[in-house]
Each structure stands twice: as structure tokens, then as C-alpha cells.
């Protein structure tokens, strides 16, 4: 029995007790480690940062996927960038109306190891006939994708360091704008407002996206194992306002049971604390 410890800031660490280290390897892209513990079940880290665990993954995966579908229930073509654990694809594939999902994950080892150790997110994703799995850089993929070819882009990425850096650039957001159709929505992992380093990432991402998309918002969710527990997704669109345009009855008619997301929470999630609003508005 020992502890996995992650640095949340220069002055603050977070630790989880684990019973077993299940796997450890250095892929061509990053350090990958899988652990098994009692509180959070199986979890894995990339470059020593928590990615996904069995206990709270439902929060992240509900919130990255369902707000977009409740805003535009006619989404048919979805691009997922990153998301190698499969949890985002799993939630998207619950919509029978979705016709095609392209998932572009840079590191095939993340996907293969999650199939082995984390079936809660990975199981069944590869087998779904609507899925196209590609193991390549998401930035390179969007550069070559045709104009207006997706209804929804979900950026399920690591932080803006190492391989994830390109997914937080103006060039990437511009390509996303181009490959989205006129009703297109972009949802992206938008870091956290609390600890300084993450708050700076949040601010920079917001500024870049706001310069490109006519409608941009940020929404929050509670993620116990990410630094500070307070995390954000960005919502950017060419047409839809996620609060004014929410289609509550249409979303309910999908009949999906969700453990975290509901349409009341959807509206509330876009109402941010004052210090977060201020930070997002500061240049
Ligand atoms: N839920 C997690 C979080 O916010 O911490 C994200 C988990 S998901 C496993 C992140 C994935 O993004 C990783 O598997 C990583 O390999 C992938 N990724 C990072 N940069 C990428 C890039 N440029 N193109 C495609 N995938 C990328």
C-alpha cells in the first residue's frame, strides 16, 4: 500500500492511496501509469497527472458531451480530439442520431492500455460501426480536414504542455472554426480557475477562442481529482447560445440516464463565480 502524489501547485500536493501499480511505460509521447486503489478504483496518469479514474470519470464525460447535444440535438458528425480513454466517445455513441464519430488520439498506447485496464470508458468504443479511430496529431488532422465537415468538435486533451500544447493555439482554434459547419459547436478542455498556472492557461485559451468564434462561453463542473476540483469546459459556436437556445424537451426525448448532467444543471453550469468572470475578462 502506497501513495500516488501529484503536485497541484508549488505549495499544494494531492495524494491517493493505491494498492497496486498495474502498468508503467514510456510511450513515444508520454509517461503512462495505471494504478488500482480503493477510493477511486483504477486510475491512470499521463506524465504524472491524473487523467481518468473509475469513480469520477462520469462527471467529466457527461459534461464534455451532453451540453452540446442539449443545445443542438441534430448533431450527426462528431470529431473527438484526444480522448484516448474512450469515455467521451462512449457518451457520444449513446445518441442513436449520431452517424459518424472520428476520434483522433495521438497516442495509441493510451487507447490500448485503457482497453485492457479501464473497460468502464474504453469498452465497446472500437466495435461501434460509426467510429473511425485515428492515431495521429489532432492539430495535423484538423489542418487537412475539409471545410464545414463536422457538427461538433470535442477537444478532450491533456494540459497545454508537451503533446497537448498545439491544441491550445490560435492556429488550432481557427482550423476548428473552418471544419465546423454553420451550426457547429466546439467544446474544449478549458483548464481551471483556481491555481495560478491553470488559471493562466484558462485565460489564454478564452482570449484566443473569443477572437475567432462569435459566441463563446465557459462552463464549470466539479472534478474531485483534478487540481482544486473546480474545472471548466469552453463552449464556442457559430450559431447557438448554450443557455438561451437549450432544447430541454428535445434532449429529454433522447431518454438518456445521466448520473451528473441534467438540463437544470446545464443552465447553472454557465453561471460563473465573480472571480472567474473577472479573470476571463482581463486581457
Ligand atoms: N480527461 C482528461 C483530462 O482533462 O485530464 C483528458 C484525458 S484524455 C486521456 C487526453 C488525451 O489527449 C491523451 O490520451 C493524449 O494522448 C491526447 N492528446 C494530447 N495531445 C494530443 C494531440 N495533439 N492530438 C491528439 N491527441 C492528443
TrEMBL record:
Q: What class of enzyme is it?
A: transferase
Cellular component (GO) terms are: cytosol
Show the active-site residues: 156
The reaction(s) catalysed by this protein are:
S-adenosyl 3-(methylsulfanyl)propylamine + putrescine = S-methyl-5'-thioadenosine + spermidine + H(+)
Which sites bind spermidine?
61, 85, 156-159
| UniProt: S-methyl-5'-thioadenosine binding residues | 30, 105, 137-138
What pathway does the UniProt record associate with this protein?
Amine and polyamine biosynthesis; spermidine biosynthesis; spermidine from putrescine: step 1/1
Biological process terms from the Gene Ontology for this record are:
spermidine biosynthetic process
Q: Write out the entry's keywords from A to Z.
A: Polyamine biosynthesis, Spermidine biosynthesis, Transferase
Q: Name one GO molecular function term.
A: spermidine synthase activity
Instruction: Write down a Pfam family by its short name.
Output: Spermine_synt_N
**Which InterPro entries does this UniProt record tie to the protein?**
PABS, PABS_CS, SAM-dependent_MTases_sf, Spermi_synthase, Spermidine_synt_N, Spermidine_synt_N_sf
The protein's job, in short, is: Catalyzes the irreversible transfer of a propylamine group from the amino donor S-adenosylmethioninamine (decarboxy-AdoMet) to putrescine (1,4-diaminobutane) to yield spermidine.
Q: How does it assemble?
A: Homodimer or homotetramer.
Instruction: Give the family per the record.
Output: Belongs to the spermidine/spermine synthase family.
Q: What is this protein called?
A: Polyamine aminopropyltransferase
Give the species this sequence originates from. Answer: Ornithinibacillus hominis
Instruction: Please spell out the taxonomic lineage of the organism that makes this protein.
Output: Bacteria, Bacillati, Bacillota, Bacilli, Bacillales
Amino acid at each position: 500500500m502506497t501513495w500516488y502524489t501529484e503536485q497541484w501547485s508549488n505549495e499544494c500536493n494531492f495524494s491517493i492511496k493505491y494498492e497496486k501499480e498495474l502498468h508503467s511505460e514510456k510511450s513515444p509521447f508520454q509517461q503512462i501509469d495505471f494504478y488500482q486503489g480503493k477510493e477511486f478504483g483504477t486510475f491512470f496518469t499521463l506524465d504524472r497527472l491524473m487523467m481518468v479514474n473509475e469513480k469520477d470519470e462520469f462527471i467529466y464525460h457527461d459534461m464534455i458531451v451532453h451540453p452540446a447535444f442539449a443545445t443542438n440535438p441534430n448533431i450527426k458528425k462528431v470529431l473527438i480530439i484526444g480522448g484516448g480513454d474512450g469515455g467521451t466517445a462512449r457518451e457520444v455513441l449513446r445518441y442513436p442520431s449520431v452517424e459518424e464519430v472520428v476520434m483522433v488520439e495521438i497516442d495509441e498506447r493510451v487507447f490500448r492500455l485503457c482497453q485492457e485496464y479501464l473497460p468502464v470508458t474504453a469498452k465497446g468504443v472500437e466495435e461501434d460501426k460509426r467510429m473511425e479511430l485515428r492515431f495521429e496529431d489532432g492539430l495535423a488532422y484538423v489542418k487537412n480536414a475539409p471545410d464545414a465537415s463536422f457538427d461538433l468538435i470535442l477537444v478532450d486533451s491533456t494540459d497545454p504542455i508537451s503533446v497537448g500544447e498545439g491544441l491550445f493555439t490560435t492556429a488550432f482554434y481557427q482550423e476548428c472554426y473552418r471544419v465546423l459547419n454553420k451550426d457547429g459547436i466546439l467544446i474544449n478542455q478549458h483548464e481551471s480557475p483556481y491555481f495560478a498556472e491553470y488559471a493562466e492557461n484558462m485565460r489564454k485559451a478564452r482570449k484566443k477562442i473569443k477572437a475567432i468564434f462569435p459566441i463563446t462561453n465557459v462552463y464549470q463542473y466539479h472534478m474531485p481529482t483534478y487540481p482544486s476540483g473546480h474545472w471548466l469546459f469552453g463552449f464556442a459556436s457559430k450559431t447557438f447560445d448554450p443557455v438561451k437556445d437549450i432544447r430541454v424537451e428535445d434532449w429529454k426525448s433522447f431518454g438518456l440516464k445521466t448520473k451528473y448532467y441534467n438540463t437544470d444543471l446545464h443552465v447553472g453550469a454557465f453561471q460563473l463565480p465573480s472571480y472567474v468572470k473577472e479573470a476571463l475578462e482581463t486581457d
